[in-house]
Every structure is written in C-alpha cells, then in structure tokens.
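User: Fold this; tokens only.

Assistant: Input:
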Amino acid sequence: MAAPLGQQIIMAEPGTPDRISDGGSEVPPTEALEGEEEEELDPFRDDDPTLHALRNINSLASWTVSTHKPTCGVPALLAPTSHTFWQSDGPQPHTLTIHFFKLVHIAKLRILLDFRKDESYTPTRMQFLAGTGHHDLCEFGGWEGAQPVGWVDVPLVGTGQNGGRGLRAFLVQVRVLENHQNGKDTHVRGVQVFARDERVPRPRGKEDSEEESEGSEEDGMQDLESPGRRAGGKGKSLFDLRGLGGLDEPDWMKDPVLR
C-alpha cells in the first residue's frame, strides 16, 4: 500500500511493530497512542505508609452481618482482595458488627469502597457505633460521601478520653444508611481494624502525650491484661528499660495474637 503524501513507511524488524515517520519524527503505534491503563495499586499491600506502627486486629473479633447473598458474606468481606465483597440481602439499614473478645484500643478503622465497580450498591452514608455490648451502643461518628474509590477512614478524633484519638471498646457496629441513587443493597469490599503495635518504636509527640494522659484507668487495664508489665512509674515498664539494665519481655507475657 502506498504511503500518504509526505510520509514514509519504515519497515520494522521482525517482532517489532511498524512505525510511521513524518518528517523525521517517529509516530508510535496506535496501541501506544491510546496508552495502557495504569496498574491499580493493591489496597491490601504491605508497604502502605499509613499503617506504620499499627497491627491488624481483625482476627481478635467475631464478625456478623445483618444479611448477605450466598457466597457474599463475612469470608468474602475479610478476604485480602478487592475482588470479593459483602453484599446485603434485605432492608436498610445494613449492619456489620465487630465483637472483640477483650477490650481493645482501636487506633485506625477503615472501609474499602469502589464506586467504579459497584455503582448504585456503593454506600453514601454510614453511621458508626461502639460500646461494651449491644445494650449500650453509642454513636461516635458518621460518614457521607459521593462516588468513593479506595479506603475510607472512619473518624476517630475525639473518641478517646480527654478528647484524644483512639477508640476503646468491646463492640463496634457499622450501619449503612444510604446507597448511591437510593440503591437497596450494598457492597463493601473490605474492613480493617488496627491497634498500636507496641513492638515498633515511634517518636514521641503530642499524640503520645495525649494517650499517656488518659488516666490510671488504662494503666489498670494494662496491668490486668499483662500482669507485671507496668512498673516503675506511669507510662513506663520494666521491659521499656532494656537499655538501662531492664529485662526483656518473654513471649508468653505478651498479648495473644490469633492468626
């Protein structure tokens, strides 16, 4: 086939796509012009910088949902992939209940939504409650948004003592109140709960001071959870003084982690 006026066909080597030269400048093939779609970042990747000094405590709780479609229940919600999801199957509000077997100090709570895949199944208004059980649930926050894509951080500012950050509870409940375009059922592609990882050293700052000022109640709870852990002053323990002649904390005295 003859080349258009002013253009020259350059025969490509075997295994390479043809290129068209126009006045000495090479024009990439059609595929390159359209461009390849950027590879989507895995929302469950391990190198997420927002999770520094945090550990996932999903395994410390029992999870229940109000309703769900077959194969779209709690296992699909907790799977470490964005391709599975919890899909409700009933009237609103749709509820997700996270019941921990002990009192936990939640430092971060986030929910994975994807409007591009779920459209009218995407939540646009949610309510968050916490307490020691179903009988004393109190609302601690809410969220409203349009067309969310990715992780949605549940607001925890002001949930701690003295207005600090951090939620202490046995039970947390998520209620989906509305969906996009008044959709009936909902899709949630992931939920993760995190606590502070005491094994990771972090620089002291204002947030650390607020956590230490929460009072003797939390110190007492630490004493009950791990006897002999706290000693030698508020906020310090025998095992925090490793470099000053202290003792190394044995594995059997650390908080249990279920996997």
